[in-house]
Design goal:
single chain, alpha+beta, two-stranded antiparallel sheet, Ferritin-like_SF, RNR-like, YHS domain-containing protein, YHS_dom
């Protein structure tokens, strides 16, 4: 009985110590908290200046995680973490922009 309680206690402690990763809202091979997701300084898209540091589709901070696709909309350049997010934004860009204005 003591062994079962000890195993249960160890399992509970170990499961509580795991860092919960925030899943990306689209079907991407990465998570928003992934250590390997930080922006690549060799990627030329990461050196551009964008109208916002946020990917409006998934709310990922592209200044931290990097840009893999862009779009110019109404004269402003926006960066996205993926083509999926860019395409999602382009379905209703004015709605995303209105929702994210400060």
């Amino acid at each position: 009985m003591k062994k079962i309680l000890l195993i249960a206690a160890i399992t509970a402690v170990l499961s509580c110590n795991k860092k919960e990763e925030k899943a990306h809202p689209h079907d991407h091979p990465h998570t928003m908290e992934s250590e390997t997701m930080y922006k690549d300084p060799k990627n030329p898209l990461n050196k551009l200046t964008y109208a916002s540091n946020i990917d409006f589709s998934c709310n990922m901070d592209v200044s931290k995680y990097g840009v893999s696709d862009t779009v110019t909309y109404k004269g402003k350049l926006y960066g996205f973490c993926s083509t999926v997010c860019k395409d999602d934004f382009m379905k209703k860009p004015d709605e995303y922009l209105a929702k994210n204005q400060k």
